[in-house]
Amino acid sequence: MASFFQKLFGSGNDAAPTATLEALGTDMHSHVLPGLDDGAETVEQSVELLRALQKLGYRKLIMTPHVMGDFYRNTPEGICGALESLRSAAIQAGVTEVALECAAEYYLDEWFSQRLERQDPLLTFGGAQRYILVETSYINEPLNFAETMFNLQAAGYRPVLAHPERYTYLYGRFADLEKIRQDGILLQLNLNSLTGYYSSGAKKVAEKLIDAGLVDLVGTDAHHIKHTDSIQTKVLTSAYLQKLLALPLLNATL
């Protein structure tokens, strides 16, 4: 265990921390694919993010553009096409030490329910595990959450709830988060939540989830270079990162 943390955080005698996220291996939540959502707009921005994520220690990226009926009606074909374009651009730019894959971050709206009912193809990650990343409104609790999670599981998917620490409707309802995980929904934490990047409320819930051992996956949720800069300059020196990385996270299995 000591050697593990020395690898992550240095020997303790260094003038500045030398932490990386190499032990995680895979980032399974980001918006690096260009021109699909509110993340990278151009291939050049995508390549810049690839370099930053590689510097953080990642060796594999599963990029997850938003899929939302009202804003980002991305399709598996369009997302996979953007992936192939970025792979070519990465090779040309000499960024070849990071494996690139894709999935999606599905917003739980009526359009998603219709796609699930029609048995439309959905992008997953983790191979045979069929993990599927989902999100909800930050403010309004979805009325059909339990039903949708049940239907996903019945269809053979393993739902992963993106950044549960950021949903304000769950603040003060930690027992509900525990119940969600007990029902078989995995929980994915955003690294920048550890430093209050999104809000102090998100930070408090993130710490409570870590203390309770309820975090299954960790993602950067990187949309822009400022997100990776914040991880580099603040998250890598945060007190809770060591506690987080000591959990049996699934990232390294991806």
Automatic annotation (TrEMBL):
Q: Which InterPro entries match?
A: Caps_polysacc_synth_CpsB/CapC, Pol/histidinol_Pase-like
Q: This protein's superkingdom?
A: Bacteria
Q: What is this protein called?
A: protein-tyrosine-phosphatase
Q: Which family does it belong to?
A: Belongs to the metallo-dependent hydrolases superfamily. CpsB/CapC family.
According to its UniProt entry, this protein's organism is: Hymenobacter mucosus
The EC number(s) attached to this protein equal: 3.1.3.48
PANTHER family reported in the protein's UniProt record:
TYROSINE-PROTEIN PHOSPHATASE YWQE (PTHR39181:SF1)
Q: Which reaction does this chain catalyze? A: O-phospho-L-tyrosyl-[protein] + H2O = L-tyrosyl-[protein] + phosphate
Query: Its Gene Ontology molecular function terms?
Result: manganese ion binding; protein tyrosine phosphatase activity
Identify the taxonomic lineage of the organism of origin: Bacteria, Pseudomonadati, Bacteroidota, Cytophagia, Cytophagales
- Key words, A-Z: Hydrolase
